[in-house]
């Protein structure tokens, strides 16, 4: 069984930041990533533009140069890929971690390909794998998706977009501009306040001029082959419908965290338990890094404020090693 001082689960921006830090501080490490490099970003909409400016997405002070102040998905893929390849980081792709178990003074990490032993484990698995579902009849129809990729697909189609935050609003605008007939179904009373400040006026104007039909304070009751039924303040409304984009956010894989023994808060936030000064969880030797830390509060952590986790974690590992060798 291969042994590493640190096994990093997840090759997103923050997993990569942890690997760079481990490498610089002389710790043997491997990143195990279940998809391609920065899998979450790879799965973002093809035209997606970050709300962060490029310097806020930088890791390890490596300059991120983008055409506009806020980079596009492709530029971010290029940036993180180049960091991995130019630094020759030890990353194993398309290798999913299935189980982490305590063994001796460390851990056994079982992936879809092999087993590893590790002194420490960093969990940097993000929150983009599991969508928040609507839990309504018809959600499993093939015309319903929780991920949006390319507006071309929806041209000349009747599209219902569910949600009021950045993903939903970007999708609604892009698809309308490519010729889809868009209905926007919003649970609250308005378009989300966190929608990018340069996009919000655009969607509000499109709604006001009637180009995009918005249903506020509305929820989906049922999805059928060629219809969607929604509950609105005026009563039930049935819309003709070809496709549904249910962009109602994502959540971390809590089961995976709990399977390692990481405790979650009892409330709806489901915050994992960790020491905010070291990022070590209630399971000694297992650390959390990146947006996974926020539980259901997926708007709390970004690349900008979580990239520091890498240094905090590696410093703590080295501190504990120094203390252990004194005894
Ligand atoms: C549409 C959208 C736009 C966003 N825009 C911004 C922005 O402008 N600025 C910003 O800072 N943040 C933005 N975010 C949030 C952003 O996704 C995160 O800040 C960033 O991806 C977090 O990096 P991470 O490394 O913590 O997690 P992720 O990038 O999600 O990386 C986690 C990785 O872990 C892998 N993984 C998961 N489970 C396993 C397993 N069991 N075994 C192996 N690998 C596993 C995943 O495949 C993934 O590659 C956006 C998010 C979305 C959805």
From TrEMBL:
- Which keywords fit this entry according to its UniProt record? Flavoprotein, Oxidoreductase
InterPro entries reported in the protein's UniProt record: Bdr, FAD/NAD-bd_sf, Ferredoxin-NADP_redctase_2
Q: Which domain of life is it from?
A: Bacteria
Question: MF terms per GO, please?
Answer: oxidoreductase activity
Pfam assignment, any one: Pyr_redox_3
This one is known as Thioredoxin reductase (NADPH)
- Originating organism: Pseudozobellia thermophila
């Amino acid at each position: 069984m291969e042994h590493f001082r640190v096994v990093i689960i997840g090759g997103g921006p923050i997993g990569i930041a942890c690997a760079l830090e481990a490498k610089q501080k002389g710790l043997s490490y491997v990143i195990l990533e279940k998809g391609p490099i920065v899998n979450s970003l790879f799965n973002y909409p093809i035209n997606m533009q970050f709300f962060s400016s490029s310097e806020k997405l930088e890791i390890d002070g490596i300059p991120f140069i983008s055409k506009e102040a806020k980079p596009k998905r492709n530029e971010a893929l290029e940036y993180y890929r180049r960091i991995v390849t130019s630094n020759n980081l030890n990353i194993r792709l398309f290798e999913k971690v299935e189980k982490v178990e305590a063994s001796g003074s460390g851990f056994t990490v079982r992936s879809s390909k092999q087993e590893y032993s590790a002194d420490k484990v960093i969990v940097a698995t993000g929150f983009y794998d599991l969508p928040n579902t609507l839990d309504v009849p018809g959600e499993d129809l093939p015309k319903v998706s929780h991920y949006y990729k390319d507006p071309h697909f929806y041209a000349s189609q009747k599209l219902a977009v569910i949600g009021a935050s950045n993903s939903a609003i970007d999708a609604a605008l892009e698809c309308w501009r490519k010729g889809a007939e868009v209905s926007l179904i919003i649970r609250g009373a308005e378009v989300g306040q966190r929608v990018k400040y340069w996009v919000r006026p655009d969607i509000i104007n499109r709604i006001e001029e009637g180009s995009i039909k918005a249903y506020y304070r509305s929820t989906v009751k049922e999805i059928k082959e060629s219809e969607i039924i929604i509950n609105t303040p005026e009563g039930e409304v049935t819309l003709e419908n070809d496709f549904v984009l249910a962009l109602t956010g994502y959540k971390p894989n809590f089961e995976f965290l709990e399977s390692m023994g990481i405790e979650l808060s009892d409330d709806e936030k489901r915050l994992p338990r960790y020491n905010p000064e070291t990022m070590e969880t209630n399971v000694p030797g297992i650390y959390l890094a990146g947006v996974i830390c926020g539980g259901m509060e997926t708007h709390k952590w970004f690349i900008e404020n979580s990239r520091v986790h890498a240094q905090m974690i590696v410093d703590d590992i080295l501190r504990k090693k120094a203390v252990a060798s004194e005894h």
